[in-house]
Amino acid sequence: MANDTSDEIMVEIPMSLNPQSPAIRLELQAYEAALPEIISRHRGQFVVIYGNSLVRYFDSYGEALEWAYETYGLDPFFVKQISEEENVAHFIRDLGPCLK
């Protein structure tokens, strides 16, 4: 993998915000809270977010996705490109209810 880094950041997100919201909400809140701290070092890279943890950074979406599936399997995770401008395309795979 080209230039992947692991500087895990845990972000405290109050669960009282909206516990009924989709899984992606927690990951997006963690990303938004950490953005000021990570933008200068990781701009343009892709971050794997698991729950409220920004776990690992990669140079490509494919590398990040491959690592996340190898690490978390079918558990929900989120891969996001780090940028000051919001990209409106989000992809998430959450098969939890289908597997019960």
Short summary:
It is globular and about 30 Å long.
List the main descriptive attributes of the protein structure presented here:
100 residues, alpha+beta, four-stranded antiparallel sheet, 2 helices, 4 strands, globular
Question: How are the secondary structure elements laid out?
Answer:
Layout: E1 9-10, H1 23-42, E2 46-50, E3 53-58, H2 61-72, E4 78-81
Antiparallel strand pairs: 1-3, 2-3, 2-4
Question: What features would you describe in this structure?
Answer:
The chain has 100 residues and is α+β, with helices and mostly antiparallel strands. It has one domain. Helix content is 32%, strand content 17%. A four-stranded antiparallel β-sheet has the order 1-3-2-4, with helices on both faces. The longest helix has 20 residues. The protein is globular and about 30 Å long. About 8% of the residues have low confidence.
